[in-house]
Design brief:
Blueprint lengths: L9 H5 L5 H21 L1 E6 L4 H4 L5 E3 L1 H10 L4 E5 L2 H10 L4 E3 L15 H10 L5 E4 L4 H4 L4 E3 L4 H6 L5 E5 L2 H11 L1 E4 L16 E4 L13 H10 L3 E5 L5 H6 L2 E2 L2 H10 L4 E5 L2 H10 L21 H10 L8 H16 L1
Parallel strand pairs: 1-2, 1-3, 3-4, 5-6, 5-7, 7-9, 8-9, 10-11, 10-12
Helix pairs in contact: 2-14, 4-5, 5-15
Bound molecules: iron/sulfur cluster (SF4).
Iron/sulfur cluster (SF4) binds next to loops.
Length: 344
Amino acid sequence: MQPTLAADRLEERLAGIVPEIEIAATAELAREVLALKEERQALILGHNYMEAALFNTVPDITGDSLELCRKAAETDFPVILFCGVRFMAETAKILNPTRTVLLPAEKAGCSLAESITAEDVRQLRRDYPGVPIVAYVNTYADVKAEVDICCTSGNAVRVVESLPGDTVIFLPDEYLARNVARETGRHVILPQKGVLPGSGDTELQKVMIGWGGRCEVHEQFTTDDIASVRRQHPETIILAHPECSPEVCEAVDFSGSTSEMIRFVRETEAPSFLLLTECSMGDNIAAANRDKTMLGLCSVRCPHMNEIRLVDVRNSLRDMRQEITVPEDIRLRALKSVERMLEL
Ligand code: SF4
């Protein structure tokens, strides 16, 4: 077991993150969570998209979904409280089934995870027999159970390149598929949307069969946003998540997963940065890099991530509620897809 997080200096950590008038109450709530954490012997995991007051106070470990799931797989704490959305907590349960996994929200869904069902995947298998299927981790356990391998935005290119043959099915994010297809020299087919071979995409021989899912946050960024920032702040380095459209990803200075963006900002000297991703992520990077200037132009908050606040974490730990369960037959099949990815 790892040592518990210290409850001191919370006010200091919250300075500049929450309004001054709320600091004392927020710190008090965070102390309550930390005391419950001790009592329950819980490991608290905090996704990069959590609100700043939560992200900067109670998690033992912060990171992207892959990093957090790796930690969840290794822990010997009896309780894992996952501050993220449902598919992430499910992945923790898939990897470490003997732990009690709590999600501090009733639903905390995801537009990508909800865009595809296990039956959709089975139909694709019938339509394209023998073609390997990759699922982005932003899918529910029953979908992971139907595919050959999972991927994250950080390792999607490597996963696709590890597969045999010239054709691969990549689900469910259309934009991530298009971005990965560009990097791996593939022509995209979207049967669900009627974009089929011969419809003029490219002449590339290798094929990526995609799906029409979109992240409701990242699909909102446009090349007009980028052009406007470039006009007003020409010195600013602009970063985008690969769930943004290919046009946006091509127009920015750097495109990468949440962890890659964090590393890029930490290691790059520039007058200012703008992140085209979920708002809280920008706030959390700004809090971790107080010597750097982040343009605060973001207005796109993920409604699902936003369901989890400090008070929900307190309530979930106090009442041990919203436990995540995954039927064992689904878990075992989903585990194979996740483990294949982790082996890479
Ligand atoms: S930011 Fe997008 S991909 Fe992430 S949980 Fe929200 S809707 Fe899903």
